[in-house]
Amino acid sequence: MRKFTVLVAFVFLAARSGFAADYPQAEVFGGFQYSHLQLGKELDGPGFNLAFNGNLSRYFGITADFGSSYGNLERIGISNYTYTFGPVFSLRAHRRYTPFVHVLVGGEHASASYLQFNRSINGLALIAGGGVDANINHRLALRVAQADWIWIHGNGANSGKNVRISTGLVLRF
Fold first, then answer.
1. b/e for 41-58, b at 16 or more Cβ within 10 A?
2. Distance of alpha carbon 101 from its chain centroid, rounded?
3. Measured between alpha carbons, how far is residue 173 from residues 69, 91, 109, 113 in Å?
């Protein structure tokens, strides 16, 4: 946890170095996500998505992304969490909207519980995708849609048929 705190602080301090820039130095996204996961069987479930961007230039930044999804599969409660980091490329050519793409690498934690039975696994996660933010003003935007493909490798198995759709608010600093 200490390494993560230092990483986030470094990203935001690096992004704050150019105060006179015409782009946001940092962005915080929070919203709803809906995931379709292939965890042995197919699972659809709601969850949340949080992302912290440190923008190093008008078009390039670093993102820390955290996602979750929850669901039930044959009376078994399943939860899945992703924590990924990587570059984000934004096209800030228009005042009304900002499209972006990202490729994120990190980890994944899945757990299943049924009565007193609990099992969990940790693995590698790769997320590739993008979306569009509708700019309300220079401090606030609505993430109209973010669509991501998720590849998970855990417990000796690969799962590449995973997707998530997110929407929510973006605060800019």
1. eebebebebbbbbbbbee
2. 12
3. 28, 17, 31, 40
Among all chains, which residue has been given the structure tokens 């605060």? 171
Using alpha carbons, list the distances in angstroms from residue 100 to 115, 137, 173: 42, 18, 18
pTM: 0.86
Torsion over CA: 19, 13, 123, 115 (sign)? negative
Q: What SS3 state is found at 75?
A: coil
Q: Spell out the domains of the chain, with CATH numbers in brackets.
A: 2-172 (2.40.160.20)
- One-letter amino acid for residue 67 of the chain: G
Question: Per 3-state DSSP, what percentage of the chain is helix, strand, and coil (rounded to 5)?
Answer: 10, 75, 20
Q: What is the C-alpha separation between 63 and 28, in angstroms, rounded? A: 10
Residue 109 has pLDDT above 60, yes or no: yes
Structure tokens at 16: 């704050």
- What Rg, from alpha-carbon coordinates, does the chain have? 17
The 8-class DSSP code of residue 10 comes to H
Determine the average pLDDT of the residues in 46-56: 97
Contacts of 159 (CB under 8 A, 6+ apart): 37, 38, 39, 151, 152, 153
